[in-house]
Design goal:
Length: 786
């Protein structure tokens, strides 16, 4: 009972304490909520008052908080922001307001605010994205809308550009609808200083806010950079554009149909080629692209429409296989003339694009990637080291068509190379590695040139050259390219580059900006051209950076979030490679078959899978393809065979080769009992897509039903997994015995009949008939007449 009383007393006290705390929090919320609501309601008057003190240009300053209420159901999308402007420019902000609620926004207020200070550091830019409270209003729908502008025009004959705010929802935004807005502010109405360009230039935060009588409903955030023509050294940026086509295919190559789609108007290869209009953009080229085009544009054999045989086996397409893995090469005999012409036209289109691309690439700095652009660090383990070596060797495909291409530069996923990885890359023949500035930071705290040296051993005796990518610009570029509405992200990218320039405006530096290692999109060209067009940025070639003096940097930092292909995927790929490599010894050209296998598996280790793809799905496809491949060479199932003892003969067995490569095999029959003796056949060559009958020598020794297994054996002695079973019935020489038995039976019947005939004698004539016969004889004697 005392324990119960104590617990009851404790419970009562806890409930009282909880009630007191809840009441306190509610009162505190009310105290803080009233000023915030009042601030939102009276912002226009406060902005006007503040403007008389801090804004000689006449723009107002506001003091409300970060804008939109969470969960209001109203959103703002910014579709256009002027990324930078000089004293003669005009700031334009265009966007869309969406009202997803079931209530109309009546008499909406739309305002554009600008940060009070210059955001000349990255941390200030990040702070503005989360808090736009310190801003001044530079455009307002009430003060700069159509009605206000008309009224002002009637009172003044001034033809100078004016601040304008136009919206399709000036009076009301209905529920479930969207409305567009456009805000333009001439540079001389921004209230920004032009007298001291070197100190006044830099990024400014922008905040577009929509509100009603209840307060702020939504906020859109962006940036612009004020550039009244200051004088300083520009920041050099080298762009690196990967030209790859990630995705799984059964033979590792991209088929003609997929290539044709990639060079179409909005295709990924077309988008990549558009980036190369800037002659300073460097190329990171995947040998897979080269190999695929070379196969697709090759002249077909005379009289045929199919591409030439590659010598590598190619199983039927599996469900989910990437389009273009196997172009429809079979069945050309059934093609109509129109289809044949379409195939040839496609080949010519691919050939034209490919030749043009090579001509452009010859004038650019080209880095040869390993085949499939794999995650090289994941291929340095013991099980897949040979696969990584093959990928590295395939760089030669790029050098064959572009002799000046660099094949000694490794590009592991940024931030994932430790010293062991770097040593492995050096061992593979690389003299340079591309890292990022998070893993190899500058020593001065500000941006340094993007070329350095780093140790690969703890004693520092061995080093490797490193190219350092700028992680901030790289990440922001990826945001721009991946966004459906990239205007805000683009403005932040430009503003960040301006903040970098502001770190040391009178000190030149050379930065490296790689584009995302995925298929190219339309955002690539917009990103590079916009950033390169900023007046404080100078587009520079990668060869210039490679030829610069290395800058000292801090020690190699250990990555805390290493991006790698999952271990389970790597183990699965290793198992596939081990099994199928043994199987490939059945082909007349096993090296070609193994090359095809390695190319296929490398498509599952590409960086694109690591940076957001589903490598497990790719592994499933690879396993399915491997099973289909090894099931494409098999023995036809036969019926049981009758065999005579003592006879040496052969049993016919049919080999089916459904692959597209020539197979070289022996057949080995393994009887399970000693009543049958069998021999291994001579080596036979089975053409692709054909069947062949092979006679297996056998000898029956004694009567028995003998189960046998027939195996396919390669020239290297490897037994293939697809065997066949056969029942052989061994019997004595029943044919000769049967003939003798039948003969003896017939002879016995003859003898028995003969014996019976002799034993019975001749049948007797009746006496009367005998007497009559004798009488007739006497009467007929000559000389006796009646």
């Amino acid at each position: 009972m005392p324990v119960f009383d104590t617990m009851t007393d404790f419970t009562i006290r806890a409930r009282v304490l909880f009630a007191l705390l809840s009441t306190t929090l509610l009162l505190a919320g009310s105290i803080f909520a009233v000023p915030l609501a009042a601030s939102a309601a009276s912002e226009a008057s406060e902005a006007s008052a503040a403007g008389s003190q801090k804004n000689p240009g006449g723009a107002a300053e506001g003091g409300d908080s970060d804008g939109a209420k969470s969960g209001t159901g109203v959103s703002i999308t910014l579709d256009e922001i002027t990324p930078w402007l000089d004293d003669k420019g005009t700031l334009t902000v265009r966007g869309l307001v969406t009202n997803s609620t079931d209530k109309a926004i009546v008499d909406p207020k739309l305002r554009l605010g600008m940060s009070l200070r210059n955001l000349d550091a990255e941390y200030r830019i990040n702070a503005w994205k989360s808090d736009q409270s310190r801003h001044r209003v530079i455009a307002d729908l009430d003060d700069n809308g159509p009605a206000a502008r008309k009224q002002a025009a009637e009172k003044s004959n001034d033809d100078d550009p004016v601040t304008a705010v136009d919206a399709t929802f000036e009076k009301e935004l209905k529920p479930g609808s969207s409305g567009e807005f456009t805000i333009t502010v001439p540079a001389d109405r921004l209230g920004l200083s032009k007298s001291s360009p070197n100190s006044s230039w830099g990024p400014r935060g922008l905040s577009v806010q929509i509100s009603d009588t209840s307060g702020a409903l939504a906020t859109g955030v962006g940036f612009t950079t004020w550039y009244p023509n200051p004088k300083f050294d520009r920041t050099a940026v080298s762009f690196l554009a990967p030209v790859t086509l990630p995705g799984y295919t059964a033979d590792g190559l991209i088929g003609p149909e997929a290539l044709d789609a990639a060079i179409a108007e909005n295709g990924s290869l077309t988008n990549a080629a558009r980036v190369l209009t800037d002659p300073k953009v460097a190329i990171a080229l995947d040998p897979r692209v080269i190999a695929s085009f070379e196969a697709a544009v090759a002249e077909p054999p005379s009289g045929e429409g199919a591409p030439p045989e590659t010598g590598a086996p190619s199983p039927p397409s599996t469900p989910g296989q990437t389009a273009g893995a196997e172009d429809a090469g079979a069945g050309d005999d059934a093609e109509s003339p129109e289809e044949q012409k379409a195939r040839e036209d496609r080949r010519k289109r691919l050939d034209t694009w490919y030749r043009d691309f090579l001509e452009t690439a010859k004038t650019r700095t080209v880095i040869a990637l390993p085949f499939g652009d794999p995650d090289q660090n994941s291929l340095t383990g013991e099980d897949l080291d040979a696969l990584g070596a093959f990928a590295q060797k395939e760089k030669a495909l790029v050098a064959e068509v572009l002799p000046d291409a660099r094949t000694d530069i490794a590009w592991p996923i940024a931030g994932t190379a430790d010293r062991a990885d770097l040593r492995a890359l050096q061992k593979a023949g690389n003299s340079t590695a591309i890292l990022d500035d998070v893993q190899q930071p500058p020593t001065s705290g500000i941006r340094e040139d993007g070329r350095s040296m780093t140790r690969t051993t703890s004693d520092g005796e061995t080093t490797i050259e490193t190219l350092i990518s700028d992680s901030a610009l790289t990440d922001l570029s990826a945001d721009v390219i991946g966004s459906k509405s990239p205007a805000a992200a683009m403005s932040e990218l430009v503003a960040t580059s301006a903040a970098i320039q502001s770190e040391a405006p009178n000190r030149s530096r050379h930065l490296l900006l790689p584009l995302p290692r995925t298929t190219a999109s339309a955002g690539w060209q917009a990103t590079t051209s916009t950033l390169a067009g900023a007046p404080w940025i100078e587009s520079s070639g990668l060869d210039t950076l490679l030829g610069s003096d290395p800058e000292p940097r801090g020690l190699l930092q250990k990555s805390t979030d290493q991006q790698r292909i999952p271990t389970s995927t790597l183990q699965g790929l290793s198992e596939i490679r081990t099994k199928e490599a043994r199987f490939n010894s059945a082909f007349s050209d096993p090296e070609a078959a193994n090359a095809r296998l390695d190319r296929s598996l490398l498509t599952c280790t590409s960086v694109a899978w690591t940076l957001g793809g589903d490598s497990a799905t790719c592994l499933d496809k690879a396993e399915s393809t491997s099973r289909a491949q090894m099931d494409s060479l098999y023995l036809e199932k036969g019926s049981s065979v009758l065999l005579v003892t003592g006879e040496k003969t052969t049993i016919p067995v049919t080999i089916v080769n459904d692959t597209t490569a020539e197979a070289t095999l022996k057949l080995r029959m393994k009887p399970q009992t000693p009543q049958l003796r069998a021999q291994t056949t001579e080596t036979v060559v089975v053409p692709p897509a054909e069947t062949m009958r092979v006679d297996v020598p056998v000898e029956g020794l004694a009567n028995a039903d003998v189960p046998t297994t027939i195996e396919m054996v390669t020239a290297d002695g490897v037994t293939l997994p697809k065997d066949a079973s056969l029942l052989v019935r061994v019997r004595a020489d029943w044919e000769n015995i049967g003939t003798a038995v039948v003969g003896l039976a017939l002879a016995a019947v003859f003898v028995i009949g003969l014996v019976k005939s002799v034993s019975r004698g001749r049948r007797k004539i009746p006496e009367q008939q005998l007497a009559a016969a004798v009488a007739r004889a006497k009467n007929d004697e000559p000389g006796k007449k009646d």
